[in-house]
Automatic annotation (TrEMBL):
Organism taxonomic ancestry: Bacteria, Bacillati, Actinomycetota, Actinomycetes, Kitasatosporales
Organism expressing this protein natively: Streptomyces beijiangensis
Protein name from the UniProt record: Aspartate aminotransferase family protein
Keyword Transferase appears in the UniProt entry: yes
Entry's family note: Belongs to the group II decarboxylase family. Sphingosine-1-phosphate lyase subfamily.
Cofactor(s) required for function per UniProt: pyridoxal 5'-phosphate
C-alpha cells in the first residue's frame, strides 16, 4: 500500500517495457539531435495542461519524478524573485504537511523555509496563516493537492489569492493526486472537489507525477508553469567553454528518453476514458476502506480524506500503529508507518491504487487489519526506557560521532552490522521520540549501514 502504483490492466507493464527498450539509447540532453524527445514531451505536457486547467500559454517540462519537479519549481521561483523583485534572501512559505522534497529544495538552493502549522483536526493549512507568513522575501508559496500524509487538499483558491495579492508565486504539489483527481472529476458521479489546478487564479505552477496514478513506469513527472516566460527562469544555459552549447530544463544533463517513451505509450493506451474509470474505481475503494477502518475497534481515520490516501491512527492507548504495521507485514501487506509530528499522531499510511480496488481485496485487507489490531492489542505498545531516551536526547547532532550514533541506534535495536530487525516497531518508536534534528542525523547513519 505504498510506493507501487499498479493499474491492474493487462499488458500495461509489457507495453511500457517495450517502449522504454526502443528508446533506451535516445538521449534527452540534446533535443536538436533527437527531435522525438521534443515531440513526445510536447504531447505529454499538452495532455497534462488540458487536464489540469492550463491554456495555450501553459508551458511544462517532463522530469524524472516528483522530487525533481518540486526542486525545479522552487529553483525557478528563487530565480524569478531574484531577477524580477531583487530578492536576495529568499524564503519558502509552506505548510508543515508539505512534502520533504520542498525542504530538500530549500537546502539545496539556499531558501529559508517558513513552516506554517496546519489545523490539527483537518490537517489543512489556513489561508490566513499563509498570508501572515508572506514577507517581501517570499519567493514561493507551496500548497498540496492532496498532502501526502493525510490525503486532504489545502484551500488552494484562498491561499493562492493571498499570494497573488502580494505578488508572490504559488506552486501546487499535485504530484500524487493530480492525475487521479483531474480524471475523477470527469466521472459522471464525481464527488465535489475543491479547485486546485492552474485554472485557479494565483496558481503559477503545478507538479503531477505520471508514474503514480498515470500508472507509467518510474521516472515520469510533469512540471507545469503558467507560461513560458516563467519557465524560462528555471532553465540553465552555458556557452562559456570550448565544448558544445549546453541548455537544460531539468537538473539532469544526459537523461534517458526511455521513461518519456514509456509514459507516452501508457498514456496513449489507457486514454482519458480509461483513466476516468480507474480513478472512479480507486475513489470507491478508498471510501470503502476508510469506512471499514472506522468500523474496527481501536482505529480511526485522520481528517477527512479527499483522495486515494488514508492515514489510520490508534483510537486509544492500547494500540501501537507500528506494531500493527509489523503484524500486517507478517500477513503480506505493507502499510507505511508515519511517526507522530506536531498535531498528527503516529499512523499508518495507505495508498489505494486500481490494482487493489477490487471488493475482495478490500474485504481481505480489512479482515487482516482487524486481526492485526487484535494481535497488537495483545502484544501491547512498544515500551522505551525513558532514561535511555533522555540520555540520547542530550547528544548533539552537529557533533555526533560514529560511536555515539552506534549507541543511539543500538537503543533502537539496530545492530552494528546494519541489519534491520525483523520487526521495525521498536526502531520507529525510538526515532519518533528523539529530537527531530537528532533523528535526521541518525537516519543517514542507519541507511548508510545498509550500503557498506
Amino acid at each position: 500500500m505504498a510506493y507501487v502504483y499498479d493499474s491492474g490492466l493487462e499488458g500495461i507493464e509489457e507495453l511500457a517495457a517495450e517502449a522504454a527498450a526502443r528508446f533506451a539509447g535516445v538521449n534527452g540532453l540534446d533535443m536538436t539531435v533527437f527531435p522525438s524527445v521534443v515531440a513526445l514531451e510536447n504531447d505529454i505536457v499538452g495532455r497534462a495542461a488540458r487536464l489540469l486547467g492550463g491554456d495555450t500559454e501553459t508551458a511544462g517540462t517532463f522530469t524524472s519524478g516528483g522530487t525533481e519537479s518540486c526542486l525545479l519549481a522552487v529553483y525557478t521561483a528563487r530565480e524569478h524573485a531574484r531577477r524580477t523583485r531583487g530578492v536576495e534572501a529568499p524564503e519558502l512559505v509552506l505548510p508543515d504537511t508539505a512534502h520533504a522534497a520542498f525542504h530538500k529544495a530549500a537546502a539545496l538552493f539556499g531558501l529559508k523555509p517558513v513552516v506554517v502549522p496546519t489545523d490539527p483536526q483537518t490537517y489543512k493549512v489556513r489561508a490566513g496563516d499563509i498570508a501572515a507568513a508572506i514577507t517581501g522575501n517570499t519567493a514561493l508559496v507551496v500548497l498540496s493537492a492532496p498532502s501526502y500524509a493525510h490525503g486532504v487538499i489545502d484551500p488552494v483558491a484562498e491561499a493562492a489569492a493571498e499570494a497573488a495579492r502580494r505578488g508572490v508565486l504559488c506552486h501546487v504539489d499535485a504530484c500524487i493526486g493530480g492525475w487521479y483527481l483531474g480524471h475523477l472529476r470527469l466521472a459522471a458521479d464525481a464527488p465535489r472537489l475543491p479547485p486546485f489546478d492552474l485554472s485557479v487564479a494565483g496558481v503559477t505552477s503545478l507538479s503531477v507525477d505520471l508514474h503514480k496514478y498515470g500508472y507509467a513506469a518510474k521516472g515520469a513527472s510533469v512540471l507545469l508553469f503558467r507560461d513560458a516566460e516563467l519557465r524560462r527562469h528555471g532553465w540553465f544555459a552555458h556557452a562559456s567553454w570550448p565544448g558544445y552549447p549546453v541548455v537544460n530544463a531539468t537538473l539532469q544533463g544526459t537523461k534517458s528518453a526511455a521513461p518519456l517513451a514509456a509514459a507516452w505509450a501508457v498514456l496513449e493506451r489507457i486514454g482519458t476514458e480509461g483513466y476516468v474509470d480507474l480513478s472512479r474505481r480507486v475513489h470507491l475503494a478508498a471510501a470503502a476502506l476508510a469506512e471499514g477502518v472506522r468500523g474496527i475497534e481501536g482505529l480511526r481515520v485522520l481528517g477527512s480524506p479527499e483522495s486515494s490516501l488514508i492515514a489510520v491512527a490508534a483510537d486509544g492507548p492500547g494500540i501501537d500503529p507500528f506494531v500493527v504495521a509489523d503484524e500486517m507485514r507478517g500477513r503480506g501487506w505493507y502499510l507505511q508507518p508515519q511517526p507522530a509530528f506536531g498535531g498528527s499522531p503516529a499512523n499508518l499510511h495507505l495508498t489505494v491504487t486500481a490494482a487493489v480496488a477490487g471488493e475482495e481485496t478490500v474485504r481481505q485487507l480489512l479482515a487482516d487489519l482487524a486481526e492485526a489490531v487484535g494481535a497488537a492489542r495483545a502484544l501491547g505498545p512498544v515500551e522505551i526506557d525513558p532514561e535511555l531516551v533522555a540520555a540520547a536526547g542530550l547528544l548533539d547532532p552537529d557533533t555526533l560521532t560514529s560511536e555515539e550514533a552506534a549507541l543511539a541506534l543500538g537503543l533502537a535495536g539496530v545492530g552494528e552490522g546494519g541489519e534491520l530487525p525483523e520487526r521495525m516497531a521498536p526502531v520507529l518508536a525510538v526515532l519518533q521520540v528523539l529530537p527531530p534534528k537528532l533523528t535526521e542525523r541518525l537516519l543517514p547513519e542507519l541507511i548508510g549501514r545498509l550500503y557498506t
